[in-house]
Write a structure and sequence with these properties.
There is one protein chain. By secondary structure, the protein is α+β, with helices and mostly antiparallel strands. The protein is built from two helices and two strands. It has a two-stranded antiparallel ribbon. It is extended and about 40 Å long.
Length: about 70
Amino acid sequence: MPFRPDEEIRCDLLCGIGPDGHWHGWIQVHVHPDALRRLGLHPDQPTARIDGPSPPGWWHAAAERRARGGGA
């Protein structure tokens, strides 16, 4: 794992009743900025910024089919 669990990453689990009356769970992941910088993922680095629009939905679906071996 690229993070030192006791120093660079923390996961919190939150549970509660939502506005619809059902139980919900949320997970928050906190990663130290220096650990992200090592991986090239910190927001100060240009590779972490969105540089254009997201591909259309059909593109994502086709990529998932190809990943599963379903062809184009």
